[in-house]
Amino acid sequence: MRKFKNKKAIKVYLMIQFERSFIMLCNDQTEGECLERNLFGDKAKRFEYLDEIKPGDIGFLLNIYKDELIGIFRACSEAQLHIEPDAWHGKFAAQVRVELIRNLQRIKDATYILNKAGVGMGQLASGAPAPQYPVHGQDVGEKILSNFKESI
Which SS3 state, helix, strand or coil, does residue 111 take? Predict the structure, then answer.
């Protein structure tokens, strides 16, 4: 049985269907551009890890500098190369168009929450914790969603 922080979250949560969830990374320098463009990106060589993302999947943005999970987003496109070629000065060519669902929310202690949700975590070259893979099943997405005050 799923546990929710409030009954309103239960009612609203049951209104949306999704098959997968995804977590993409940002830092203090790239977060603003992600939010302004409604676009998440990764390096082109990691495109194969994003190809499961489909419109309607639920997404989260992980600021690796702040250990903060930002959401809740819905994919508006499949992952593609160069949706906006000039985004991030071309550094992150594997891209997914997203839309914010309701109000922007931020959750601290993201690493703890992601571990608890069953996301396998690794480390970037910088030492910052990050998910080993960006795409996860509905079960992981549901666990992550349960941490947001205003669910979908």
Answer: helix
